[in-house]
């Protein structure tokens, strides 16, 4: 089992490993950021009965399909299991399973892993599961194709004409107290605790429900309470001993929208462009009264002459996490080793929330907000902070621009992998939009004209953009002529999803 190359998330994989271990399976866990070669070499070396892949972000989906193709090329026969937050039954059926002749099974969560693995290693049940899985995947592929064929797209030009209507004439953009980059060298952990949104914490452990109502659940309320108490104990230790270090960097910049791009300027004179963020616009046809949105719609157009601004940030709560995890692993305490990661993720999100509050204050419009912490967690404030990778901005490579803009690695030690995952894992990045109408949106599927326009704007090749935005393509990209590689060349390949 491994988290694929370029990806750093492993809570889900680790939970599955523990559950399988408890059921007497021997799990060889190769960790995170593992290349196809290493996974498959290890599978041969250990004579594995199954190979399992995990991933959190969409670029990992392409890497998983690559591993499947490599399994086919290297003549593997063992089943391939696919899991992780970014994966789905449909994607596995459409994009991964067709590349490997042997069973490729998507496993939704840890509770299902034991049943699936049990069936796949049993001579009696393997065939039955394989048949059922193949026929289900066939149906999913057909449905996917039908759905895709029925989608209608507007041209990019038409879509731009239907951008989000914003009354710029009557808008007075708030002016930040200070422009430029600021570093939060350490945000005290104790101040972040009240900003923790606990509901996703329970989801990590497969307990559905919102905090604190979850404690009233008749079936798993007691379990949730027990988990919460354990988490509080560990959290107190982390805070008291300062076992995790938080760091953040953020900046506010003069900005203007030019079509779907957002230009950032070096100073208030707006004479020199510092960098440009590229946004993507919805293109699937919808009723005439509905706009086709892009995040750039929430920044005042350059032609308006309004002095608007945009913000950008990266926060981490994962510095120092390794020593804590190693401590628990040395005691064979898998439960707390996973709990540490779950808490660091919560602290990273809490830090993002806390920093957003501070930025709204510095921007001016947040000072008369008067929201309780709970209302802040429920995002009742003005403005949004979309994160590259989320449905409003599905292109992970925009993080490279963001990291360069804020000089993130040098300032706070957070780096990007070849798939644009952030290291340490418990990190969050995003942009700040202050307009009161700004909303999270889903870009959805895109047509060929937008992809080639976007590629031109980003100075990337169309095929490269197609690889990064694979889940958003509303068409099948033209197949590139495969280049025959010798095994040695394949082994030497180090490029990630830019492959
Ligand atoms: C918690 C969370 C985070 C946390 C933790 C992430 C981390 N440590 O890596 C934080 C807040 C830090 C975070 C950050 C980001 N996130 Co986030 N995050 C989530 C969230 C809400 C839950 C994921 C999770 O931990 N689930 C709990 C675990 C236990 O579940 P799991 O991983 O799916 O594993 C289960 C199954 O999948 C299965 N399984 C997993 N692996 C395997 C392997 C095998 C072999 C098998 C059989 C089964 C199996 O069993 C597991 C246990 O049940 C999801 C949304 C969602 N609801 O899924 C978004 C989500 C994963 N995040 C997303 C994104 C984009 C990001 C960011 C890039 C955003 C940003 N710019 O800051 C960053 C990236 C972080 C990084 N380091 O690079 C996207 C990813 C999809 C995409 N478009 O790329 C999601 C899907 C949100 C969305 N709807 O867009 N995130």
Q: Tell me, what is the CATH class of the domain at 168-186 and 246-320 and 342-432?
A: Alpha Beta
Classify the helix fraction into a percent range.
40-55%
Q: What compounds sit in this structure?
A: cobalamin
Q: What does the overall shape look like?
A: globular
| Uncertain stretches | 481-499
Mean pLDDT: 94
Helical element count?
Answer: 18
Give me the secondary-structure category.
alpha/beta
Distance between the amino and carboxyl termini: 22 Å
The major β-sheet equals: 6 strands, antiparallel
Give the topology.
Blueprint: E1 2-3, H1 11-22, H2 36-45, E2 51-54, H3 59-73, E3 80-83, H4 89-96, E4 104-106, H5 110-120, H6 123-150, H7 156-161, E5 180-184, H8 189-192, H9 199-204, H10 221-241, E6 245-258, E7 261-265, E8 273-278, E9 309-319, H11 321-330, H12 334-363, H13 373-377, H14 398-406, H15 408-412, E10 415-416, E11 422-423, E12 427-432, H16 448-458, H17 462-468, H18 487-492
The protein binds cobalamin (B12).
Cobalamin is lined by residues 1, 8-9, 11-13, 15-16, 52-54, 56-58, 81, 83-86, 107, 109-110, 113, 200, 203-204, 206, 345, 348-349, 387-391, 394, 421-422, 425-430.
